[in-house]
């Protein structure tokens, strides 16, 4: 079931869509940034909020939030993650994208898809479709890109996100959901959450989180999440996780790639996707003034996506969309509680 609520006092095109399944799970999505603002599970102890977000548009536009901007729950694009110095070669020409994160491009630039008002349409009892036209030259990206994101909450306790896009020129593309999970409902940070990632390798990064093009085996490193372990078990070796894990999804329509478990709530979440990468970010830089529950490590982001800087890395695929192609990916989050 989907209900429509107001979400902005001055702009009645911006709404809040409330999806509820037959088991009492409730997902709230606004067409501002296609943001998942809330996801609650009906625990015996009461309704449990398990994602980081706000219940009003003004909080998403608040200057203190935008200062160390964490992109809570937003759909990110045109290119999620980093592009080295914002430069991309297309048909022999160098395109300069906004360098909005130090020397580099991050998450679609100064005004990426996370800050756009998408068109919204209910396309099924539990399916909300959000559409956006990113015009040629939008944040200096080439080509008119039409994209849709469908959120679906089904009665198998799965929240699915379907991504689809076309573009009339060759363009870099990498979409993701920047949702942060915390199964304690903000009582604790995420360092005691247990995580399993079915990945044998991560992408090697330089000190500015730009991939070198090499793959690093996780064996005997803090990045080894092949067996479930607490996030804080090895985090001291890396201070914070902000790394792209190589997934074994090549040629697969959908594969279970990760699982998160939190003992006190007994909530577990299975993540399945067909994206080739998963950026694990443990939220060290989250620090929202006036919201003490949104401090460092208060949320766990599992950003299923293509690889960072793929347009510049010859041995990385999935960096571009070409005219006539359809970019299609999905990610599913299945909850047990
Ligand atoms: C930091 O490096 C991280 C990014 O990966 C994350 O997406 C952002 O904060 C919100 O820049």
Automatic annotation (TrEMBL):
InterPro entries: Aldose_1-epimerase, Aldose_1/G6P_1-epimerase, Gal_mutarotase_sf_dom, Galactose_mutarotase-like, GH-type_carb-bd. This is Aldose 1-epimerase. Its EC number is 5.1.3.3. Pathway: Carbohydrate metabolism; hexose metabolism. GO terms for biological process: galactose catabolic process via UDP-galactose, Leloir pathway; glucose metabolic process. Monomer. GO terms for molecular function: aldose 1-epimerase activity; carbohydrate binding. Beta-D-galactose binds at residues 81-82, 178-180, 242. The lineage of its organism: Bacteria, Pseudomonadati, Bacteroidota, Bacteroidia, Marinilabiliales. SUPFAM superfamilies: Galactose mutarotase-like (SSF74650).
């Amino acid at each position: 079931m989907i209900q429509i609520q107001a979400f902005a006092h001055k702009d009645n095109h911006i709404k809040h869509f409330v999806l509820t399944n037959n088991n009492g799970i409730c997902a709230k999505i606004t067409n501002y940034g296609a943001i998942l603002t809330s996801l609650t599970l009906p625990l015996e102890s009461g309704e449990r909020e398990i994602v980081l977000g706000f219940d009003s548009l003004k909080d998403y536009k608040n200057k203190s939030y935008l200062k160390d901007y964490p992109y809570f729950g937003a759909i990110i694009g045109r290119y999620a993650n980093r592009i080295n110095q914002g430069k991309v070669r297309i048909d022999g020409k160098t395109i300069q994208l906004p360098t909005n994160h130090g020397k580099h491009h991050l998450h679609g630039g100064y005004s990426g898809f996370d800050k756009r008002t998408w068109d919204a349409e209910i396309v099924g009892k539990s399916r909300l479709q959000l559409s956006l036209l990113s015009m040629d030259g939008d944040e200096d990206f080439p080509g008119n890109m039409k994209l849709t994101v469908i959120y679906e909450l089904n009665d198998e306790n799965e929240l699915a996100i379907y991504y689809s896009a076309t573009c009339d020129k060759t363009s870099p593309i990498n979409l993701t959901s920047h949702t942060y999970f915390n199964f304690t409902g903000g009582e604790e940070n995420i360092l005691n959450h247990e995580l399993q990632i079915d990945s044998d390798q991560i992408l090697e990064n330089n000190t500015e989180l730009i991939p070198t093009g090499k793959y690093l085996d996780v064996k005997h490193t803090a990045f080894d999440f092949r067996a479930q372990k607490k996030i804080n078990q090895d985090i001291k070796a890396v201070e914070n996780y902000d790394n792209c894990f190589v997934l074994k999804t090549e040629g697969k329509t959908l594969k279970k790639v990760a699982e998160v478990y939190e003992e006190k709530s007994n909530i577990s979440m299975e993540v399945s996707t067909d994206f080739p990468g998963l950026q694990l970010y443990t939220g060290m830089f989250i620090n929202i003034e006036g919201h003490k529950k949104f401090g460092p490590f208060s949320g766990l982001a599992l950003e299923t996506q293509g690889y960072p800087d793929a347009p510049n890395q010859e041995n990385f695929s999935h960096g571009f969309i070409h005219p006539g192609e359809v970019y299609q990916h999905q990610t599913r989050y299945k909850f047990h509680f």
